[in-house]
């Protein structure tokens, strides 16, 4: 399988400090890969470099074999879109759902037909009556559906998901996880997910990479989470501490609910 996303020897800096150091990994087409690691380890910075929000980077970033340069933000956006943690902050408060969904098309000079907006609303399970509402007239889960819909408008192959469920009420998290599973399957999407929740990784991903202080410590299949066996001592420690913190127990109901709904 060829790589949808290939990152090689990536360094990203803020000011004079490299916060991502020599990171290399690939995500195959249709695969879902998680970046995990303690707070400040550089997970979100990697996503930000990929979409062009962190501009001081060196190394290789390729989508579907095409290398990213600092000047091709627009072309790159057609293939790769990001969904942020907090849909309330990421949606423009004075834009209706309809205007929000049309905006990426407008930016890319694509004439925005009603049919596309309606198709994407249906795809994310958002009733058409919400189309002319503003973000404050939607629930948290509905807002995150809008954010996902916006990311899909340009029909990208790769979605970067930065803690896509952690700002949501627990009861809504399972719904959004189910939606992400379904969209990946229906649209053949590739996911790169940042999360602190190992149960979410188990549910949504095929493989994971463990970051510490900006460096990739280990890459493993999600079976390592089921078996609890990692080659790297830090990865093992992170896994053990997530159990100690009750991560598994706390998240178990949401993942069980999500699993049930998907019949997995
Ligand atoms: N805009 C910025 N300017 C300067 N430093 C930044 C900026 N954004 C992040 N950093 C620093 O870069 C490092 C990596 O941050 P990053 O947000 O990528 O970590 P993370 O692993 O995603 O953390 P978390 O899990 O808490 O979201 C941190 O030390 C952070 O303080």
Automatic annotation (TrEMBL):
Keyword Cytoplasm among UniProt keywords: no
GO molecular function: ATP binding; ATP hydrolysis activity
Keywords: ATP-binding, Nucleotide-binding, Transport
Residue span(s) of domain ABC transporter: 5-238
Record flagged with keyword Transit peptide: no
InterPro entries reported in the protein's UniProt record: AAA+_ATPase, ABC_transp_ATP-bind, ABC_transporter-like_ATP-bd, ABC_transporter-like_CS, P-loop_NTPase
Coiled coil segments of this chain: none
Protein's GO biological process: transmembrane transport
Family from the record: Belongs to the ABC transporter superfamily.
Protein's name in the database: ABC transporter ATP-binding protein
Organism field: Yoonia algicola
């Amino acid at each position: 399988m060829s790589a949808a996303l290939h990152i090689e020897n990536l360094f990203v800096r803020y000011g004079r400090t490299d916060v991502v150091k020599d990171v290399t990994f690939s995500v195959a087409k249709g695969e879902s890969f998680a970046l995990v690691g303690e707070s400040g380890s550089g997970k979100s910075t990697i996503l930000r470099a990929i979409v062009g929000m962190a501009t001081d980077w060196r190394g290789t970033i390729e989508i579907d074999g095409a290398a990213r340069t600092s000047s091709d933000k627009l072309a790159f956006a057609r293939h790769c879109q990001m969904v942020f943690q907090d849909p309330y902050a990421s949606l423009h408060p004075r834009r209706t759902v309809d205007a929000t969904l049309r905006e990426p098309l407008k930016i890319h000079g694509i004439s925005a037909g009603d049919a596309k907006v309606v198709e994407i609303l249906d795809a994310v399970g958002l009733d058409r009556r919400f189309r002319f509402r503003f973000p404050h007239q939607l629930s948290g889960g509905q807002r995150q559906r809008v954010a996902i819909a916006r990311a899909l408008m340009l029909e990208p192959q790769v979605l970067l998901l930065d803690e896509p469920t952690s700002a949501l009420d627990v009861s809504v998290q399972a719904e959004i996880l189910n939606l992400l599973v379904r969209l990946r399957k229906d649209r053949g999407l590739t996911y790169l997910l940042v999360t602190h929740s190992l149960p979410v990784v188990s549910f949504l991903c095929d493989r994971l990479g463990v970051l510490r202080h900006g460096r990739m410590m280990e890459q493993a299949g999600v079976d390592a989470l089921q078996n609890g066996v990692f080659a790297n001592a830090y990865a093992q420690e992170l896994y053990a501490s997530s159990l100690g913190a009750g991560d598994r127990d706390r998240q178990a109901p949401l993942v069980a609910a999500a699993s049930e709904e998907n019949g997995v």
